[in-house]
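An instance noted here:
***
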Amino acid sequence: MKTKKAASPAARRTPRAAMATAAREAAPIQAVAAAAPGGELAAAEAATIDITFADLGLTAPMLKALSDAGYQRPTPIQAQAVPLALKGRDIIGLAMTGTGKTAAFVIPIIERLLGGPRRTRALILTPTRELCVQVEESFRKYGKHSGLTVIPVYGGVGYDPQVKALRGGVDVVVATPGRLLDHLEKQNVVLDEIEVLVLDEADRMLDMGFAPQINRIVAQLHSYRQTLLFSATMPPEVEALARKYLRKPVVVQVGRRSGAATTVQHFVYPCPKDKKTSLLVELLKKESLDSVLVFTRTKHGADRVVKVLEKAGINAGAMHADKTQGQRTKALDDFKKAKLRVLVATDIAQRGLDISGISHVINFDVPQQAEDYVHRIGRTGRAAATGDAYTFMCADEIAMVKSIERIVGQPIPRISVVGYDFGT
């Protein structure tokens, strides 16, 4: 496919388009200003319990793909968001991790692109490589009977295969902002025919400092498009992003903002910092801890924990930003296939890892931001399954645990292990 040089935003923006942009920025997002009352949310979610995918008016190829994947009923956010997206509405989707957010935008995008011209018509921006791969896998799973093509675009891997695929023409691009900008600057891809833009994990992208890159990318898109924004939280920065890029959005909210998964049991283990690794080894003597995701604050800490576990005869691997993409992918695949019993990660893994069967999430270090706790423990108790979340708390982390308790809306039980509790 021959690429053409993208015109500058100023050259492409008509007076009408400029007015549309100004209107989006000025329009109030009243539903985002405050969380909806809990009763209304519960009623909205309860109304979706008996809905099947067939009730959503999906095409036969999509229903076949969903059936092949073993899905018959949509999750609450899917039941609410998919019909709106199929109507072309801009959407702000607010939901905790593990609620099926990815399928809530993947399904309607595939339905929209079916039978259309072969050109890049959908763009999904994600904060991390892992989430980028997960979204791409979802497009392949739900679009297996559609004939649509999709490419993940992220750094840390070969550049030339991405260039070849982009220039050859694909229907859907799933990308991290930095690598996509590299391709845009080299004119490997043109985005002026994008019909649907998805900002996935918008709060995480802003946390990681991607706002300038997002602005530069969106400036290359036509103003008249459908935009879907999904976020676990709605801080002022995300609301400002929504005001800038969405037109009269419908807010779809599932569960209380920043709420922790209700299928997860929480426990705090008081323990001095220098005894945390020994406590971890002690707990892993229980066979019930069969698939464990451990979070550490630093990359060095993750590597150190893995060495201790391996010395104790426990299969473990590390996943953090200093690992190559190949190493990260192998560690994740081995964990999914149960070749690794324990995966030790930094917060790079707190979002976007869709792994079924994680029995326990262990916060080796208490997260410095209380809301990060919600995202960490969202790796277990996914899709209505149950799981346990353990947090190792040393004396100088007590205040941070109290902040977490305010976020989850309940005190977290303390479990004292003889020989490890700093209070004994």
In short: The mean pLDDT is 83. The two ends are 70 Å apart (CA to CA).
